[in-house]
Amino acid sequence: MKPSPITRLNFVHDMMEVGLSYDQSLKAYNAVMSTIANGVVNGQRVYLGNIGCLNPSVQPPRQVIMGFDRKGGKVTRKQREFSLDSRLRYKFRLFKKFVETHELNWFG
Prior knowledge:
The chain is built from three helices and five strands.
């Protein structure tokens, strides 16, 4: 059984348990999300407290060769070449100290 994802509802609920009102919790959530979104849009590394960080990695441009074509549900052999531009991908990296001090329950 997969664990349920943590959503805005969980964030707001936890903030309300600490003592913030619903409106203040929503403002805090929106501020955190807009800060993370600005970092991602600008291609910056985003640190998430002492948990880890989102690392941007640039993938260089490359040629892709496809040996088929799909038309009307039929696959035919055809040699085609495409150029993929450079892309920015984000990878999440956990900090060693966090892993050493917490028990991760990923595999049951």
